[in-house]
Design brief:
By secondary structure, the chain is mainly alpha-helical. The protein has 25 helices and five strands.
Length: 523
């Protein structure tokens, strides 16, 4: 192997190049390090799993590269391509210095500019291009030699005959040329069902579906975007179902390739100059599927999140998807959250230039540029509350959970600074029910009037918290029991939810107090 980093695109197939570029563009490279010698690069790329990529570059040429993904259909995979793009972006100067024989990354030497020789300009006369010679049919490949001698009727008859005995060929033909129909009458769900009826086994099904996707990808343009979306959305439910019904056919890798093809096609559609309505429909499709039965496996969910990030363009879409991801495992979706943060920042900059930005943009801008914090520092607490209440109103209208939380926190901080007990209790309750955090519970306990029966109030708060959460908040409730030294209630809670994590977390509080019960739990 040996090809220049500067134009490595010329040495990679278009399909792998497009996939690698999408990985690079969406921030899938989690880590990139360079050796002390400055010629070996190690990277971690987030895909279906996290893959380790190594690249050795000498004098501006990629000499060796490796990846531990299972791809085996060519010398270079999409993860390596993503790293090539990143290296060229981040270490361009270093690679250039090494081509010139330099070894220092931070070299301060500057090459003295060479004076260009002044050469007299010459007038060049270009002779006219001779007419192209008619190509000799015998020089063509055998199949094309035959085609050159057949009439259109001959080809049509031959195709119709083949359609009778090879239904998958007819399906592929219809799929590839559906855009030529005057009315879009292709029923893609029915076409996909026909593949199942005519294929030999699961591997053959996957092969035929990938062929249909390849046909759409090779002919992709704005006019064919709807057809590409229709076919992909018809295939995906079946692709997700393959994992459950594979029954030891060892088709995991083929299924992954099918999913990759399907989502790469949708991402390619998004890269076209499609209409706003079509792009928003793609986002809605991706977002709705994230929590659907199709995406119950994390790998599938990851595909839909990636599509959602790529298609999110409006401010509301960006906030909606980011708020969802923040509720999930942040480490797993960190690269996507970073991409959304960049999109949000760019969106805010563009909206700032407008004379009358939308209300939600204006409110969010106020929080991003710290006027609320400045008002708080100047002890203008009423202004803080005014801004925060306006933010809460807009956040509730649009369902922007992260903005709602920020505004409620500012309301609580202003209330504490003013020692407004009523407001402190109001916003502490709201934040406690939203987050379940013990700090808000402790604030309520501190500021509640002495006449309140706190045991009764505590039970009421716990019931409210349980009712406000989608799943039982075991750890939040356990924290309250520990705070109130209600260890019998804590034991009952752990007995109800005897997970390994809960046993480890609450061992220090329960093991010595309830020896028999604890021993029974551990059995």
């Amino acid at each position: 192997m040996g090809f220049p980093l500067s134009n490595f695109e010329d040495y990679v197939s278009k399909k792998i190049l497009d996939r690698g570029y999408n990985y690079y563009r969406l921030g899938a490279i989690l880590e990139l390090t360079i050796s002390a010698e400055g010629d070996w690069y190690d990277a971690i790329v987030e895909g279906t799993d996290e893959y380790e990529v190594g690249v050795y570059i000498e004098k501006g040429k990629i000499i060796r590269c490796s990846c531990d993904c299972p791809y085996s259909y060519g010398p270079i995979c999409k993860h390596q391509v993503a790293v090539f793009f990143r290296i060229r972006e981040e270490y361009k100067d270093l690679v250039y210095e090494k081509v010139l024989g330099e070894t220092s990354i931070n070299s301060n030497k500057k090459a003295s500019p060479k004076k260009k020789k002044q050469t007299p300009q010459k007038t060049i006369s270009i002779p006219p291009t001779p007419p192209a010679k008619k190509q000799n049919v015998s020089s063509l490949p055998p199949a094309q030699q035959i085609m050159a001698q057949l009439t259109n009727d001959d080809l049509v008859k031959w195709l119709l005959l083949k359609f009778r005995v090879q239904s998958n060929l007819e399906q592929q033909f219809l799929s590839d040329f559906a855009h030529l129909l005057e009315s879009k009458t292709i029923n893609y769900p029915e076409m996909v069902q026909d593949v199942f009826g005519n294929a030999y086994d699961l591997i053959d099904v996957i092969s035929q579906l990938r062929t249909l996707l390849d046909g759409k990808a090779s002919n992709l343009k704005v006019e064919t975007a709807d057809e590409a979306i229709g076919l992909t959305q018809a295939i995906l439910p079946h692709a997700f179902g393959f994992y459950e019904h594979e029954q030891g056919q060892n088709a995991d890798w083929e299924i992954e390739m099918l999913l990759d093809d399907a989502f790469e096609l949708l991402l390619s559609v998004n890269d076209l100059a499609i209409s706003t309505e079509r792009r928003q429909a793609l986002f809605q499709y991706a977002f709705k599927q994230i929590d659907s039965s199709l995406a119950k496996d994390w790998d599938f969910k990851h595909h839909f999140v990636r599509l959602g990030v790529a298609t999110a363009t409006t401010y509301e879409e960006i906030l909606l998807l980011r708020a969802y991801l923040k509720q999930e495992d942040k480490d797993e979706y960190s690269s996507f959250i970073r991409s959304l943060n960049k999109k949000e920042k760019q969106h805010l900059k563009e909206q700032e230039k407008q004379e009358t930005p939308p209300p939600i943009i204006k409110i969010k801008y106020q929080f991003k540029n710290k006027p609320v914090e400045k008002a708080y520092q100047k002890k203008q607490y009423e202004k803080v509350m005014e801004l925060a209440l306006a933010g809460i109103e807009e956040a509730e209208k649009g369902g922007y959970e992260d903005l709602l939380h920020d505004c409620q926190v500012w309301m609580l901080k202003a209330a504490q600074a003013m020692n407004d007990i009523t407001e402190i209790i109001t916003w502490s309750v709201s934040l406690f029910l939203d987050t379940g955090e013990l700090a808000y519970y402790q604030l309520l306990k501190k500021y509640s009037p002495p006449r309140v029966n706190w045991q009764q109030k505590s039970n009421h708060l716990i019931q409210q918290l349980i009712g406000s959460q989608e799943t039982f908040p075991v750890q939040n409730v356990a924290a309250i029991y520990i705070e109130e030294k209600r260890f019998e209630d804590l034991l009952e809670l752990v007995q109800t939810y005897p997970t390994k994590a809960n046993l480890e977390l609450y061992q220090v509080h329960l093991e010595k107090r309830f020896k028999k019960e604890w021993a029974k739990l551990n059995k």
